[in-house]
Specification:
about 15% strand; 5-stranded parallel beta sheet; alpha/beta; about 230 residues
Length: about 230
């Protein structure tokens, strides 16, 4: 699988998401691993094997390990954060070609969260020489008011608190939204009403979240462009 996909795009991409969401303790697998075909076939060694396989084919793209839920203090976040940190340490200690960690950030205002503490957690990866990407960024608005204006203000406030905290960590050098427009949000699949979790509305008009993101980027410390491998 890796040979076929990576050989097709080698030298053309900025980064590969080599392994995505390796942990899900709710699957009740030893070590908190997410159940799936790669774990079933190879056990936990599949992660390091995947990184080495991609690096052997694509010599330039950055290689990322991407994980979900770590931004919150819900049971999910509290259980996954230490597992991811240990995995990163093991990969680096083994000399695996890991360059960056992706932190999926589907923010949920209805759940407990300490964004300053999360920024400290992210800073731990920076101390190991890694950069960090904020990936799949959006704000779950399902628990917020029905009124569009009030909901948009609340979404923007949550997004601003989060971004102002994490962008204070210089190693955070990328923010990727999970779609740009509400029209295409994945929350349409699970929401009881039209979701508004993104920086642009269904007609591609900028919303308060988009303005808050721009302000957070402008206020953040200047970054040094990340080199390729």
């Amino acid at each position: 699988h890796i040979d076929r996909v990576v050989e097709r795009y080698a030298g053309k991409l900025y980064a590969w998401d080599v392994v995505n969401e390796p942990f899900w303790p709710m699957d009740r697998k030893p070590g908190g691993w997410r159940d799936g075909p790669w774990l079933a076939a190879m056990g936990p060694s599949y992660v390091e094997r995947a990184f080495r396989r991609v690096a052997a084919i694509d010599k330039t793209a950055l290689l990322a390990l991407n994980e979900a839920q770590c931004d919150n203090d819900h049971e999910w976040g509290r259980s996954i954060r230490p597992l991811l940190a240990v995995l990163v340490d093991r990969l680096l200690d083994a000399g695996a070609p890991l360059d960056t960690v992706g932190m999926q950030s589907h923010l949920r205002p209805q759940w407990p969260a300490d964004y300053a503490a999360f920024a400290g957690y992210v800073g731990g990866f920076a101390k190991r020489g890694l950069s960090v990407s904020i990936t799949e960024f959006d704000v779950d608005d399902s628990a917020l008011p029905d009124d569009f204006a009030a909901r948009d203000r609340a979404v923007a406030a949550v997004g601003a608190r989060f971004l102002n905290a994490v962008l204070a960590v210089p190693a955070v050098d990328m923010v990727v939204t999970w779609q740009l427009s509400d029209r295409y949000s994945w929350y349409h699949e699970i929401s009881r009403r039209a979701p508004r979790p993104l920086p642009f509305d269904a007609d591609l008009r900028i919303k308060p979240l988009g303005e808050a993101m721009a302000a957070a980027f402008a206020a953040a410390p200047r970054r040094t462009p990340r080199p390729t491998r």
